[in-house]
Amino acid sequence: ARGEVQLINLPQVHDPRGDLTFVEGGNHIPFDIKRVYYLYNVPVDAERGGHAHRDLEQIVFALSGSFRLKIDDGRQKSEYWLRDPRKGLYISRLIWREMDSFSQGAVCMVLASHPYDEGDYYRDYDGFISALRDDV
Ligand code: TYD
After folding, report:
1. Cβ 37 under 6 angstroms from ligand 1
2. pLDDT by position in tens, the chain (length 136)
3. To which H or E segment does residue 67 belong?
4. Cα–Cα distance, 55 to 78 (Å, whole number)
5. Which residues form the catalytic set?
6. If you write DSSP's letter for every residue of 1-14 in order, what string do you get?
7. Which atom number of ligand 1 is nearest to the Cα of residue 51?
8. What backbone torsions phi and psi does residue 133 show, to the nearest 5 degrees?
9. Which residue CA neighbors atom 18 of ligand 1 most closely?
10. Distance, CA 8 to ligand 1 centroid (Å)?
11. 3-state secondary structure (DSSP) of residue 84
């Protein structure tokens, strides 16, 4: 799929000792997980993202704290406030994303469909728009 975002709900095992959430490849995630990365120590006034990907699919979680995720498929813009560690936002290929308004101590975890590849990035918005046009 291209140009698609969708909220993914993970299971939660509630316990007086604390809550537990798990992710199973092949079950909760619509791609094979090839990489996990996380953002932390993010200053509250930082802006991250500002790019799209040719092939990469990702699911973004707020493991702790909260932040805003701005989504742009080239036609419509939307925004999501992630703050529940059970809920991730699936982001398909060819979606422009920006992140800001990180709370103090927020941790953002991302599951990704490919290893890191700078050649997969569109870091220029106009380049992203023309890639959308050229993608059949
Ligand atoms: P970038 O994807 O631009 O971060 P964000 O979208 O969160 O603002 O990556 C920032 C830097 O980190 C960039 O130099 C590439 C590097 N990086 C890796 O080396 N490996 C990775 O898995 C990721 C996500 C980034």
Report:
1. yes
2. 788 999 999 999 999 999 999 999 999 999 999 999 999 999 999 999 999 999 999 999 999 999 999 999 999 999 999 999 999 999 999 999 999 999 999 999 999 999 999 999 999 999 999 999 999 7
3. strand 67-72
4. 21
5. 51
6. -BS-EEEEEPPEE-
7. 6
8. -65, -35
9. 116
10. 23
11. coil
Ligand 1 pocket check for 85: Cβ under 6 Å: no
Q: How far is the CA of 13 from the centre of ligand 1 (A)?
A: 32
Separation in Å, CA 134 to CA 20, 86, 119: 43, 36, 17
CB 99 within 8 A of CB 108: yes
| Fold held by 5-134 | Jelly Rolls (2.60.120)
Nearest to 11 by CA among 65, 80, 88, 82: 88
Asked whether the beta carbons of 102 and 93 are under 8 A apart, the reply is: no
CA distances from 60 to 23, 29, 119 (A): 12, 11, 21
